[in-house]
Amino acid sequence: MPVFFDEALDKFSIAIEELVKGNIEASLARLGECKSDLVGSFFIEHGQQSAYFRVRDKKQIDLHNKVTKVANPSPRLLPNVEKQVFLRDSYRCRYCGQRIIAKEVFAEYSRILGKENFSVERENSRRNGLTLGLRGVADHVDPYAFGGLTELENLVTSCYSCNFGKAGYTLEQLGIEDPRSRPPIKDDWLGLSDLLPSLKRIPESNSN
User: What is the pTM of this model?
Assistant: First the structure.
């Protein structure tokens, strides 16, 4: 990921800390330094689009000659399972190493300061770019469409860009290393989830 992803994450971390302290104006000032539009644009132009390019090239690589899709139950992922994956992986993408932020932190920030200051709406064009570039998901390493199970052993933390780029392809089809072959980075990064209890106690801002 570009250097400005980490820079944006560090600024947003300070914005959250300022909000927890009750410094709304300082929090908004730090948010303004995050280059949210740049982060969001990179995801849309590179992370998201890379999946579309692979879909376009399907006929050329004839994926089904290598792996046949199988009937598999819906990949319904319980929140507690996703949290276990994130904690195990120190809230870092196992593909590229990018730190991620818990989606609940984004939701609380939006609730407190209002969507006019920080939107988490579904449409890419209407949501803050940080929620696209710095949000994580639990990714099926072996795609569920090809028989991969929704179990901890087959799930890794992935940033949105890597998740979209991998799409429903197998590691063999993409020619990339199995992220499970590398041990997860262990540090104290928790995706700001440790600040969630404090955020949940903060009422909505009167400026909403």
Answer: 0.86
